[in-house]
Write a structure and sequence with these properties.
The protein is an alpha+beta fold and 650 residues long. The protein is built from 21 helices and 24 strands. Among the domains are: 86 residues, Calcium-transporting ATPase, cytoplasmic transduction domain A, CATH 2.70.150.10; 161 residues, Rossmann fold (3-Layer(aba) Sandwich); 115 residues, Calcium-transporting ATPase, cytoplasmic domain N. Helix content is 48%, strand content 18%. The longest helix has 35 residues. The protein is elongated. The relative contact order is 0.11. The N terminus is likely disordered.
Length: 650
Amino acid sequence: MEECCSTKPKKEHNHSHEGHDHDHSHDTGDQSTFQMFLPAIISFSLLLIGIVLDNYIKTSWFTGWVRLVWYLIAYIPVGLPVLKEAYESITKGDVFSEFFLMGIATVGAFAIGEYPEGVTVMLFYSVGEVFQAMAVTRAKSNIKSLLDQRPDEVTILKDGKPEIVKAEKVNIGEIIQLKSGEKLGLDGELLSEKASFNTSALTGESKPDTKIKGETVLAGMINLNTVSQVKVTTAYKDSKLSKILEMVQNATAQKAPTELFIRKFAKVYTPIVVFLAIGITLLPYFFVADYQFRDWLYRALVFLVISCPCALVISIPLGYFGGIGAGSRNGILFKGSNFLDVLANVQNVVMDKTGTMTEGVFKVQEVDFKTEFNKDEILKFVNALESKSSHPVATAIHDFVGEIDHSIQLENVEEIAGHGLKATINGKDLLGGNFKLLDKFNIKYDIQPENIVYTLIAIAYDKQFVGYLTIADSIKADAQLTINKLKALNVQTTMLSGDKTSVVKFVADQLGIQNAFGDLLPEDKVNKVKEIKARNQTVAFVGDGVNDAPVVALSDVGIAMGGLGSDATIETADVVIQDDMPSKIPMAINIGKQTKKIVWQNIILAFAVKAVVLVLGAGGLATMWEAVFADVGVALLAILNAVRIQKMKF
């Protein structure tokens, strides 16, 4: 089932499971449950009357051609669509589909006069198909609800007057007027002073998110209070929500190894079954004394019904898609079912520090300057210097000091990679960065930086050591819970960061992370992950998915935090956690484990029941009724089992 569960239009739903190139999805969007079951109800009613007339109210007229026509009419509502599918599959070169198996089994039953059994097999098969279609529809509902978050029309302001237009026609730079309760159709920048939004469609987070003027707001967010104005910054097709929807729609194209095996298995298995059925019919002629063609044909037909691989072909992709749906409902986007499998078996979670386990919002904790320097003046100089950098540290200093004094003349501003900033003020050099920067310019200092836990910004002015600022990043509220849950899942945790080793060790010790390494360059992180993989262990890397691209590429599965923050993140990562909560990491692993468990339960159930009934059928001990249970009954049980994952709490 390659895309039967995607949200693409019906015409794109034709899929192939290697030799089963047909549409299994039965688009049920506009059909009521009654309409879906109507053919089965008609068929069942006629079958029931026929069985009563056969066995309980014996009449002279219900014989011969009348009886045949009665059961044919009962067969047509459920049998005709299946025979049509079988014919279409054959014209496409796929002879051995499950439709073909059901077709020859039921037509064969009519040929040997077993009319009620022929109708019953097709009736139960059709009911199974309807239940499967309903299960797929339910599995789609989480993703369809995402589609519903993107309105087709928006209200824009033209010359100060509101005008309703199609969302895809809106140009970048136009202004949207968003009333209370309305959904935003495109990404943009908030022009109003303040507005609160419900972001649950994007992040799974029900708590309102308050935005202030100038902040980014995204398509799918719902305005909760006053009328707001938003300037469009992204085209409709490029919005974050569009990218997320496209990603989830394509998720089922990435197959898990189990799915790929079943598809290949079905391609080989089905023709073998057909030839075995022919053998069961004809070979006994040479070995059995009282050979009866009708009896052995009946056994072969029973064998065909039992061996239909529907339970596997339907329930396994449905199980994986249920896992993808459960993830999206909880704000976790899997780019394919193969990543569910990898996460189910992951042994190591390697994580970045800043923005993953910490908030990524730095704050100045302490200013320790030597008394001979004017503290306020130096801070103004440092604030002006740091304004030339986009680093989070610069933002922390700006938040601490306040407005930049533009009267300060900065000359020869230079950013020294991996060290910090240098500029000339009043003819004197000002340095701001790490202590390696001071070493580079031979500035002597009288402290031991490695003994101070926080991130340090060393300051030197006029070739003299001024002192330092300490900057810290707060640990996320659910970081501790995350590590505890990962330990409960027997997953090893490692923290890799470019931040100071003492800071990284301090955060790791607070959270109970087993291994922590600081002062790492991107290539150092790659080497650390290679060391873990050299032990033949699986690795999930959690980071921003952009700066850590080499590590993400090397790891077995890359998980991006804050998927709404960066287009590149959505492109790079295999799994995107939309709301920045690290506790979603063990949740994603748990969803993978539960999905895999359900898939294997279905595989074992289907093979065990079919193996037993196949042997009984070949030996003439099982009738069509047992065959129906082995095929449709097991398929229904497998579907119901697969649907369970969508109701689980993680």
